[in-house]
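Re: weekly structure request thread

Next one in the queue (273 aa):
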Amino acid sequence: MSNILVTAATGTVGSEVVKVLESKGHKVRAASRQGEGNNKLDFTDPSTFAPALEGIERVYLVSPPGHANQYELLKPFLSVLFATDSVKRIVTQTAQGVDADDNIPFRKLELAIEQSGKDYVHIRPTWFAQNFHNFWQVGQYQGFALPAGDAQVAFIDARDIALAAAAALSRDDIALNRGYELTGPVALTHGEAASILSDVLGKTISYQPIDDETFRQQLVPSGMPADYIDLLVNLFVPVRAGYAATVTGDVELLANQAPRELADYARDFKHLL
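Done, posted below.
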């Protein structure tokens, strides 16, 4: 029955984390930029920091999308978070592979938390299955074009990230002060993923491999900042190098159940695909 702050609580993962924790009887403060009172947390507004953290024992920290340097965005909040005596555990959602280089902004965030003196867990998910409808919008375009070549990715359902995160926040029998690499049960090429989506949906979903510059030009009309577009383009470099093909058992280790397959995601989100 911990007092748990979930940041980005209206997001793809955060909203699911709130559901899981509340179903288990935990006291959850679901914070977001749109929240009111203690449920309002805007990382660009320091006046929201202390109220959101008041009486909180454990924190799920998620950087909102759209920022190329997550560490610089979150650094002001971290100083208040680390000084809040009631907070005993911080669970941070970063990304698979961030520990490869200490200069990666997400890794800088992890290192700051590691040095804070608080107990911590780093949740490092690979590419979300939900990207197919949230970002690649395959339902609208009947396909997607990405600079991923024929590299494999162990796509993970955001609901499984949430189950693992909720366990990291609430269980006292897990190993703390370490990272967990969260993946789906099998690594697939984007072509294989498109075939699975096609089979489940009963319509053809195509995948077109493209180069980095073509992908960049696709993103420009979105109005995203140039540095964030660069970040998105560069994310596919390690994908093409094979680093996203790793499959781990960390979801099951934390959540005590196997992660969903991509076909499960497609069936459950068929109305959005």
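The chain has a mean pLDDT of 95. DSSP finds 13 helices and ten strands in the chain.
Next request, please.
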